[in-house]
Design a protein that fits this description.
alpha/beta, Rossmann fold, Dihydrodipicolinate Reductase, domain 2, 2 domains, 9-stranded mixed beta sheet, 5-stranded parallel beta sheet, 9 helices, 30% helix, oxidoreductase, GFO_IDH_MocA-like_dom
């Protein structure tokens, strides 16, 4: 089996995570070295057991190394265009951390230079292989809840914006570019068409110049509504997913896939019971009684380990059609741009179709 020699460009939090968790145990790859502008990261690479930790001290040295087949770019977001362009011109295949670019125009430049130099550019949209997402996708594909009416996708933390550069707009910081890019990509991958419109609100509770959370609503032809919510100051976690279908509701509480599905039982023998609700009475807002619903477990999906890197290997070595298509990445970029415009103008933005 041919091994791919890959150099890690940017050995910070994400770059070292790739090396320690994705690449170390994958027999299809060999880490040919690292490059980081922070000299202290070479010691970290040595401590993490990278044999060639001291091999490269510039991007030019990586480009000149004939044995290095590919690079992982895990640098701050505003430097992606520079590195993608440089390594594409050097003939290296490229994995780039998300967001691949700061705009759809930048991404178009990357695609042009990679196509011209016949190299693979794959964006690290690893969340397509998250078990919780794949479990929701399986529900959708199998029509497990009937027609999907509404999807709520949430990611919440209580530790603020991570790191230093992620707090600055010029560096490509903020939660839309950090987590929104993943959650939007999941919907672009799962759903057969783009939303017709988006409405977004950015939150700035921490006082930085970038968003520390947001709410994005995407509305689709046929009536489906998707709400994506990201928070960094949430101390009472809400469900990771709530999915409303015509024939039932599903909840996934967390990354561990706790949750379940509830479907109604329709029968002339089942009576709707009203409840006392606050200072009044309601039947409309009363939950169904135990005999009027059927509860079931989630049909959980377990993806293969190391799926993203195996995908990259197959595309580069075996010329497989990529699962992460450039057209989908471009659609994610355009939805994020529409969301940013919506938040700025406080308006619903129609998504253009070409």
């Amino acid at each position: 089996m041919k091994k791919l020699n890959l150099a890690i460009v940017g050995y910070g939090g994400m770059g070292s995570y790739h090396g320690n968790n994705y690449l170390r145990e994958n027999a299809k790859f060999e880490i040919s070295g690292i490059f980081d502008i922070d000299a202290s990261r070479y010691a970290a690479a040595r401590e993490n057991g990278i044999e060639n930790y001291d091999r490269f001290h510039s991007k030019e040295e990586i480009a000149a190394d004939a044995s290095t087949d590919a690079v992982l770019i895990a640098t701050p977001n505003d430097s992606h265009l520079e590195y993608v362009t440089f390594f594409a011109q050097a003939g290296k295949h490229i994995i780039c951390e998300k967001p691949v670019a700061l705009s759809s125009a930048e991404y178009a430049q990357m695609l042009e230079v990679c196509d011209k130099n016949k190299v693979v550019l794959m964006v690290h949209q690893n969340r397509r292989w998250d078990p919780d997402f794949l479990t929701v996708k399986k529900m959708y594909d199998k029509n497990a809840l009937g027609k999907f009416c509404r999807i709520e996708s949430r990611v919440q933390g209580a530790n603020g914006i991570p790191g230093d550069w992620r707090k600055f707009e010029e560096k490509g910081g903020g939660m839309m570019l950090d987590w929104g890019v993943h959650l939007i990509d999941q919907m672009v991958y799962m759903l057969p068409e783009l939303p017709e419109s988006v409405y977004c609100r950015y939150f700035y509770g921490a006082g930085f110049e970038v968003d520390d959370g947001f709410r994005l609503e995407m509305n689709y032809n046929g009536g489906l509504s998707v709400e994506i919510a990201v928070d960094t100051n949430c101390f009472i976690p809400l469900p990771r997913w709530t999915v409303y279908g015509a024939d039932g509701t599903a909840v996934i509480e967390d990354w561990a896939l706790n949750g379940g599905i509830v479907k109604p039982v329709y029968s002339k023998d089942i009576k709707i019971a009203g409840i006392q609700a606050g200072n009044g009475f309601t039947k409309t807002m009363a939950y169904r009684t135990a005999e009027s619903v059927v509860k079931s477990e989630l049909d959980k999906v377990s993806p293969e380990p190391n799926a993203f890197y195996n995908e990259f290997y197959d595309v580069v070595v075996d010329h497989k059609e990529p699962l992460i298509r450039s057209s989908e990445v471009m659609n994610v970029m355009k939805i994020m741009e529409a969301a940013k415009r919506s938040a700025k103008e406080n308006q619903v933005i129609t998504i253009a179709r070409h």
